[in-house]
């Protein structure tokens, strides 16, 4: 009988260890995927049997009603975060990627303490930020539970994330683009606006969308800053503000059954909003990938990759 | 060409002269913007990049100021004490070190701190091996047409609001665990140290283990996606070389790939830990909010973040404001822990990178 040496593991122990390893990796994947699928199915299974479309356009009443103002409230919060955190976060990312002078010794981009502060803020517990917002803004500035402190606190939460994604997107813009802009005599600001930011825009928008997904799913800091009300108020301060996550959190164990249905509906609407944001960001990413693949033949200078093991990205989405 | 607007005998005003003399306002504004655009970018970006640091300093300062009376009165008892009582709201107001607080109020947060660390530890112990295994399956074994949608599913899991995960945990997953999984573990756990905590009673699904498992589901996306990206960055040559030497899948993973990305995985894990420590809503829903150290792993418990949320309403009833100050002290402790964890991750990463001879699995 002939045996081929290259056939694979030669000893029993090695064969067993390899098969065990393979099986365990698949089991691990299944153990992650099964609860994830179950979670989504469970949200659907709770909401769909009692789903009524008028939830989307009727207001919350003591006997049940709909969630129109809560949905609008969540969207308004997202809009506020988009304006406040979007502008500040993108500018901070521009500073970290383009404007800060590189450090002399390591050659790495500078902004050491600022970057560290941003990363620490990204890992800061949201409830602590909520408490600070409550103490400083709601009570300290006498704003009361309202929209303005909620937007400010949510923005502080997601600014580090937007700054990080913006910086990453800007760093992927080839150096040749900047050099080309300068060689054509563009001023620094004009070149930044028309060339660099334009080509980094898809990455920046993706980061913004994911930051909005984080913001719309947040509950704990909002309870401390926005309060809750059944209907939309007409002022930025001194009026409690409605949003969806509170409905899920408070109504699922309310005494009345119609409130349970509202909690399930709110959970479904939240998941749909998050899915829409994720799908939008995916579409943007895949489109730009196609675009950049066609441009691969052009001048493309890559920054030299640092030697040694890769460092992980320490700023990741969180709620 | 006739001069437009020119009077005979006089030279028409040249456009250049006109624009030098008195340009219209929009043009001047545009020129001003053009000349100062760089400054505008630089200064606005400078202000924006300082804001996170300012927010961080502001947050810690506010917490410290607010918590100071509570820190003075509660003292070290806050860290080792087990008794958490607000005191009598109708009784006399006592002054300790000049700080007013209700009579009989005593705040020892040992159970709360214990619950925070225990639930986060359970989450990490479950999430880390699952994440590494799943990342391996996604990058090394499965073809792209399967692994890409699965990677997307993990991203979706990362985006699901924690309140929705909490809802599923308390209505569906927790009861299922309590009926189908916990009894099996509890009936077979021997009465020896550590494993003793897995014995009966299992309760109804609200408790430490349920919360730990749900937390692990929330940090799995963080660790998996980071680990997956790290695996993709491992250069193929060492792996192919190891395979060519006759190493098995397991040996390549154990001796080449994992050592290469070790520091990154540690960083991602600590990041997940930070996330688990700060999670609020899901713990409030699934943890059961009991202010004591649970007798076994299935019993209700609480964490720092959950306590800050659940005790707020009660704290308002304390007319002296001492309960609110104590919550600020809790928030400060949580902030210190999370900042410490984050900095530790940084130190670990730079350390291991400096020492790291990445290949070779010593």
Instruction: Please give the radius of gyration of chain A in angstroms.
Output: 25 Å
Unreliable segments of chain B (pLDDT under 50, ≥5 consecutive)?
1-7, 354-362
Strand neighbour order, sheet with most strands of chain B: 1-4
**What characteristic shape of chain B results from the CA principal axes?**
flat
Q: What summary fits the major beta sheet of chain A?
A: 2 strands, antiparallel
Largest sheet: spatial strand order of chain A: 1-2
Helix count from the secondary structure assignment of chain B: 13
Q: Which stretches of chain A are low in confidence, meaning pLDDT under 50 for 5 or more residues running?
A: 293-306, 314-319
| Structural classification of chain A | mainly alpha
Beta-strand proportion of chain B: under 5%
| Architecture per CATH nomenclature, i.e. the level-2 architecture of the domain at 111-307 and 333-355 in chain B | Orthogonal Bundle
Overall pLDDT metric of chain B: 84
CATH architecture of chain A: Orthogonal Bundle
CATH topology of the domain at 111-307 and 333-355 in chain B: MetI-like fold
Q: What does the largest sheet of chain B look like?
A: 2 strands, antiparallel
Specify the CATH homologous superfamily of chain A.
MetI-like
Give the ordered list of helices and strands of chain A: HEEHHHHHHHHH
Helix content of chain B: over 70%
């Amino acid at each position: 009988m002939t045996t081929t040496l290259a056939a694979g593991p030669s000893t029993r122990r090695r064969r067993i260890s390899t098969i065990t390893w393979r099986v365990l990796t698949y089991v691990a994947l299944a153990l992650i995927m099964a609860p994830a699928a179950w979670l989504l199915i469970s949200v659907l299974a709770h909401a769909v049997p009692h789903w009524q479309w008028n939830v989307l356009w009727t207001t919350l009443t003591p006997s049940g009603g709909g969630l129109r103002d809560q949905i609008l409230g969540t969207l308004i919060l997202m809009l506020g975060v988009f304006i406040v955190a979007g502008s500040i976060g993108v500018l901070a990312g521009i500073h970290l990627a383009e404007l800060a002078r590189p450090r002399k010794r390591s050659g790495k981009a500078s902004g050491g303490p600022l970057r560290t502060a941003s990363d620490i803020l990204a890992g800061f517990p949201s409830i602590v930020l909520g408490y600070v917002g409550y103490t400083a803004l709601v009570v300290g500035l006498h704003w009361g539970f309202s929209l303005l402190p909620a937007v400010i606190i949510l923005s502080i939460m997601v600014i580090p994330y937007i700054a990080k994604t913006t910086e990453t997107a800007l760093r992927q813009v080839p150096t040749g683009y900047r050099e080309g802009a300068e060689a054509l005599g563009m001023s620094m600001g004009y070149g930044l606006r028309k060339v660099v930011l334009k080509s980094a825009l898809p990455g920046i928008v993706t980061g913004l969308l994911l930051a909005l997904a984080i913001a719309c799913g947040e509950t704990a800091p909002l309870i401390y800053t926005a309060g809750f009300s059944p209907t939309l108020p007409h002022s930025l301060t001194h009026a409690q503000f409605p949003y969806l996550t509170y409905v899920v959190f408070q109504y699922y164990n309310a005494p009345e059954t119609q409130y349970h249905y509202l909690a399930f509906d709110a959970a479904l609407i939240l998941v749909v909003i998050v899915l829409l944001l994720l799908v939008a960001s995916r579409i943007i990413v895949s489109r730009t990938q196609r675009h950049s693949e066609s441009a691969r033949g052009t001048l493309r200078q890559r920054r030299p990759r640092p030697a040694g093991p890769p460092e992980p990205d320490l700023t990741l989405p969180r709620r | 060409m006739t001069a437009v607007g020119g009077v005979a005998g006089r030279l028409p005003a040249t456009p250049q002269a006109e624009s030098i003399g008195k340009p219209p306002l929009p043009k001047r504004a545009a020129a001003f913007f053009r000349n100062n655009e760089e400054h505008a970018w630089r200064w606005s970006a400078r202000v924006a990049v300082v804001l996170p640091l300012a927010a961080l300093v502001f947050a810690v300062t506010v917490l410290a100021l607010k918590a100071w009376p509570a820190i003075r009165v509660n003292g070290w008892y806050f860290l080792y004490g087990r008794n958490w009582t607000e005191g009598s709201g109708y009784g006399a107001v006592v002054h300790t070190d000049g700080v007013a607080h209700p009579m009989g109020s005593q705040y020892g947060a040992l159970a709360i701190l214990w619950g925070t660390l225990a639930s986060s530890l359970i989450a990490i112990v479950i999430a880390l091996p699952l994440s590494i295994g799943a990342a391996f399956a996604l990058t090394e074994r499965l073809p792209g047409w399967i692994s890409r949608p699965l990677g997307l599913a993990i991203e979706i899991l990362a985006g699901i609001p924690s309140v929705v995960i909490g809802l599923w945990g308390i209505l569906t997953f927790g009861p299922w665990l309590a009926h189908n999984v916990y009894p099996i573990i509890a009936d077979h756990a021997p009465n020896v140290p550590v494993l003793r905590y897995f014995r009966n009673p299992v309760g109804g699904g609200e408790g430490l283990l349920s919360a730990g498992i749900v937390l692990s589901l929330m940090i799995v996306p963080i660790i998996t996606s980071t680990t997956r990206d790290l695996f993709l960055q491992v250069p193929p040559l060492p792996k192919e070389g190891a395979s060519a030497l006759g190493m098995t899948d397991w040996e390549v993973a154990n001796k080449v790939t994992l050592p290469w990305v070790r520091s990154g995985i540690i960083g991602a894990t600590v990041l997940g830990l930070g996330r688990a420590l700060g999670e609020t809503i899901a713990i409030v829903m699934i943890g059961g909010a009991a202010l004591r150290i649970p007798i076994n792993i299935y019993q209700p418990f609480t964490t720092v973040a959950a306590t800050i949320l659940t005790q707020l309403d009660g704290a308002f009833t304390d007319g002296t404001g001492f309960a609110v100050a104590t919550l600020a002290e809790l928030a400060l402790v949580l902030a210190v822990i999370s900042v410490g964890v984050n900095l530790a991750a940084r130190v670990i990463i730079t350390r291991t990178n400096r020492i790291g001879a990445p290949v070779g699995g010593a």
